[in-house]
Amino acid sequence: MSDFEPVIIGFLCKWCASAAADLAGTSRLQYPANLRPIMVNCSGFIDTSYILRALLEGADGVLIGACHPGDCHYVDGNLKARRRIAIIKNSIKALSLEPERIRFEFISTSEGAKFARVVREFTEQIKALGPNPLKRNER
Amino acid sequence: MKGVFIPERDPRDAIRFVLRQAMEKGLLGGILGYRRNNSGLIYPYLFTSKEELSQLVPISPVISGYSMATLSSWITTNGYSGEKIAVLLKPCETRAVIELSKFDQVSLENLLLMTVECLGTYHVLDFIDMIEGGESPEESLLKSYYSREDDAFREACKICMYPKAPYSDLNLCFISLGGKGLVVETSSEKGYHLMEKLGFSVQELEDEALEVIDIRKERRKEFLEKSRQDLAGPEKINEFFQDCINCHNCMEVCPICFCEECFFDADRYEYVTRRFLNWSPKEGTFPLPEAKIQFHLGRALHMSTSCITCGLCQQACPKQIKLSEFFILLAEENQALFDYVPGRDPEEKPPIREFYEEELEEYTGGT
Q1: Considering the entire predicted model, what is its pTM?
Q2: Architecture label for domain A8-129
Q3: In chain B, what residues touch A53 (CB-CB under 8 Å)?
Q4: Pairwise CA distance, residues B167 & B257, whole Å
Q5: CB–CB of A91 and B275 under 8 A?
Q6: What is the secondary structure of B202-238 as a DSSP string?
């Protein structure tokens, strides 16, 4: 299990978490390369079926990076996202699947260090969980 | 509870009587209900004259295909028509209408919601069997209502907690009267005014709860427990949906699924052969390009907070998949999360349309 390298899809808001990833890069902060970042215009744009599809088609974990409450560039996209995350995590739990594979974080532009920490933590967590039993694709 | 008591008459005659009066006085432009054809089959019909009302089936033993909520949505999508239309609904359909109105799919302004008290309906196939066997489904339905026997009804009906709609303009109650009379409960201003205009005097009446609720609470608990076991983990979920042929009937008849074009109908699932070779042994059946769980769970994630657990998805399934187990489980869990009851109040916002800065902390961060 030790050589298991998880695939983590990151849906990162353009206005915060994505910029935080850039900041982590320019600050030379190290974090695992397991994350495959996807920049989205707003976390409110992320439909629950995108997360589900990522998990079905090969991802071991999904990270969603959103602006802190009150900071959303589009007023309340991040709060909508949080409701949706709550619904998907709750449903997945009801079906005895693993809600821990989805992680929702508020990361502002200036929090490059937090971004790196979150990716490190999450990668460790997914490594401990092992490969995602739901995925139907082998890479 | 305020209402009008119409004594002695058979409830079906009483409902027809009220509707005929309303049409005579020009208070209604149409009535959406069920009509029986010559072979005994029952199908939805928009009644426009009082002469046709003799063919009306006021207490329908079946929901045939689309729910009345979907039909109500179709006839009101372009807003105010000038004509008031009464709709005879089952409590689940009324709740669906309320939910659709929250998503601007139904204009309640034009509609008069008349909810017929209900302990369940037959599966459409059982209904056809009954007719072919020479039995009258309507009479059998009323007989089982009066004796509180619900064994023959659809699975979703047997665990339904709403014999009466929590919100409706008029609630037509007759079960506790055992076939002698009808109580028209005026639950809203609109319903009250209609009954006043018809010349009935609205009085304070005694509220009677049906005794089936306690039994059903127990049954519902057992049902949810069973669903949870049947759907525990990836293998069991795969097995559960093994028979699915992706016809999307369940989505088509779902009263809550109102999107013009479904997210899952789009052609975005095209893969190379190798993928299918990979999937086949894993799924134990022909692997559909769009994973079955992607469609069913994805759809549930979109609509489960408003799911009124009518079970029409299961009735429409050509493969008899026990879809109500899946949807009722997720509806129960997700509605409990937001303390939300669909169809309770038209003013209440659905969970996916309302959000606060401080909430759901347990879903943020490393949990």
Answers
A1: 0.92
A2: 3-Layer(aba) Sandwich (3.40)
A3: 294, 298
A4: 21
A5: no
A6: PEE------THHHHHHHHHHHHHHHHHHHT-SHHHHH
The alpha-carbon gap from A43 to the nearest alpha carbon of chain B, in Å, equals 13
Q: How far apart are CA B344 and CA A53, in angstroms?
A: 33
CB contact under 8 A, A80 and B282: no
Residue B328: partners with Cβ closer than 8 Å, 6 or more residues away: B156, B159, B223, B224, B227, B307, B309, B311
Helix axes B91-102, B68-76, angle to 10 degrees: 40
pLDDT digits (tens, 9 = 90+) for B175-211: 988 888 899 999 899 999 999 999 888 888 887 777 8
Contacts of A84 (CB under 8 A, 6+ apart): A46, A47, A48, B301, B352
Of A70, A96, A103, the CB nearest to B232: A96
Separation CA B354–CA B339 (nearest Å)? 13
ipTM field: 0.92
Question: If you count DSSP H runs as helices and E runs as strands, how many of each does chain A have, helices first?
Answer: 4, 4
Q: Which residue of A has its CA nearest to B331?
A: A91
| Residue B42 to residue B64: CA distance in whole angstroms | 7
**Could you tell me if B317 and B140 are in contact, meaning their C-beta atoms sit under 8 angstroms apart?**
no
What amino acid occupies position B214? D
Taking Cα atoms as reference points, which of B295, B283, B349 lies closest to residue B327? B295
Beta-ladder partners of A40:
A13
Instruction: Tell how strand B203-204 and strand B2-6 pair up.
Output: antiparallel
Q: Where are the domains of chain A?
A: 8-129
**Are B244 and B319 spatial neighbours (Cβ–Cβ below 8 Å)?**
yes
For B245, other C-beta atoms within 10 Å of its C-beta total 14
Asked if the C-beta of A129 comes within 8 angstroms of chain B's C-beta atoms, the answer is no
B15 to chain A, closest Cα gap in Å:
42
pLDDT digits 0-9 by tens, A101-137? 999 999 999 999 999 999 999 999 999 999 998 887 6
Of the candidates B234, B302, B363, the beta carbon closest to that of A97 is on: B234
Contact B297/A91, CB-based, under 8 Å?
Answer: yes
Which chain B residue is nearest to residue A104, measuring alpha carbons?
A: B364
d(CA A16, CA B242): 42
